[in-house]
Amino acid sequence: MHLPPFDQYPILTDNLIILRPPRMADIPAILEICFYDGKAAETQEEAKEILQKINQDYEKGNSIHWVISDFILHQTIGTCGFYRGFDNETGEIGYVLLPEFRGHGWMTYAVQLMIRFGFYDMGLKRIIAMTSAENLKSQKVLERIGFTLKDTTEDGNLEFELLKKH
Fold it and tell me: How far apart are CA 114 and CA 12, in angstroms?
């Protein structure tokens, strides 16, 4: 497996979006969707601290985080990445879009890029995603891409799974 940190931070693109490394300059645009371990940033200073933690996790090889940007305007629309390490050739994805960009298919493209990268560049065999039972839009994204519902956690979240096809 080829895991973070990479010689060069991977930038993933298609015709509609770019997944690029987060920068401190992104903080104002992503403040309302800036989370770490389930805790939201309430100030720009907290968001900067979160970004520093995310960068430390990357350097330790436990995660990779991207800003989702519109390919044409280069407008920041969300964030996504692999989180919580890569044990047993498994990666866990997470993602969030700014409210004004939800429901337009952006996240489907981002998740597809992450999956392709995870399976073919990192060598993962399994990718999981956790979402709340109430987050029907997230569930639809995962199902549309081919994830299947695997389990319900003790706290009521849903675990979806996608296995690499040989």
Answer: 8
pLDDT digits (tens, 9 = 90+) for 58-83: 999 999 999 999 988 889 999 999 99
Question: Among candidates 145, 119, 149, 118, which has minimal Cα distance to 131?
Answer: 149
Instruction: At 36, list the tokens.
Output: 């770490």
pLDDT exceeding 70 applies to what percent of the chain? 100
Region of residue 84 (left: phi > 0; alpha: psi -120 to 50; beta: else):
left
pTM for this predicted structure: 0.93
Nearest residue to 124 (alpha-carbon basis) of 82, 153, 80 = 82
What is the three-class DSSP state of 89?
Answer: helix
- For the chain, which domains are there? 12-163 (3.40.630.30)
Q: In this structure, which amino acid lies at residue 7?
A: D
CA angle 79, 142, 120 (to 5 degrees): 75
CA distance 166 to 33: 36
pLDDT in tens, 133-153: 999 999 999 999 999 999 998
